[in-house]
Amino acid sequence: MVEGYDVMAIGNMCPQPAEIWAHSNVELRSVADVEGLRFRDTGHGGEILAMLGMAVVFLPGGELYEAMQRGVIDAFEYSSPVVDWPMGFQEVTDYHYFSASWSPNDPLAFYVNRSKFEALPPDLKAIVEQAVIAGTDQHHQWLEYESMYGVQRFIDYGNVVAKLPADIDRALLEATEEYYAEKAAVERPLYQEILDSLAEFKRAWAEYAEPTAFEAL
């Protein structure tokens, strides 16, 4: 993906926990409730949600609080509990929906100029790599811990925290597969290679996770 650019990723990539699917002032009980929903999003995600009939609005994060307060939008996605709580979103929304179908992870990559890194002597390369690995791990553990207890903060405030209805999940995933299949048909071959790699990972993970999944007694 970075071929031809003076950039490289170093260290390990710790996937972050899934972000909050949506903060909303509209209760989402089924896929019918998203039709016409004024939803803030960005990029590919916004285009996919529009396929579900949402009225997608593109706004920067700093405008979300006021937009919800004034009723400009009905719902939005932003980040994880550890980020969203300090933003004050609990003050202007009633419902917080969770699902791994939305931003299931956000790999933490550290990018550097390849030419600068390769110019370092071996000992300094090792120091930089280990510093990045240690910093990434520390950030990942902090994010997991704070997000876990961040959910309870929304509940204690009086908000409704719920799992996204299954039919919305299914509709989103079907639209996502359709969207990326269409993109792959017109993009360079690397695009399809990435999709195939993701599909293989999903297959392998499901094969591994199903027999090892913990079930509560």
What does it look like?
The structure is a single chain. This protein is of the alpha/beta class and 217 residues long. The protein has a single domain, classed as Bacterial extracellular solute-binding protein, family 7 (D-Maltodextrin-Binding Protein, domain 2). Helices cover 48% and strands 12% of the residues. The protein has 7 helices and 8 strands, in the order βββαβαβαββααβαα. The protein has helices spanning 43-51, 64-69, 81-84, 114-118, 122-157, 166-186, 189-212, and strands at 8-10, 20-24, 38-40, 55-57, 75-76, 95-98, 110-112, 160-163. It has a 6-stranded mixed sheet with strand order 4-3-5-2-6-8, with helices on both faces. α1 (43-51) links the parallel β3 (38-40) and β4 (55-57). α6 runs antiparallel to α7. It is globular. The mean pLDDT is 91.
Instruction: Give the second-level CATH assignment, the architecture.
Output: 3-Layer(aba) Sandwich
Distance between the termini: 45 Å
Q: Fraction of residues in helices?
A: 40-55%
Give the helices and strands as they follow along the chain. EEEHEHEHEEHHEHH
**Poorly predicted spans:** none
Q: How many helix segments?
A: 7
Q: What is the count of β-strands?
A: 8
CATH topology: D-Maltodextrin-Binding Protein, domain 2
Radius of gyration: 20 Å
CATH level-4 homologous superfamily: Bacterial extracellular solute-binding protein, family 7
State mean pLDDT (0 to 100 scale): 91
CATH class equals Alpha Beta
Inertia-based shape:
globular
Largest sheet: number of strands, sense, barrel closure: 6 strands, mixed
- What is the count of distinct domains? 1
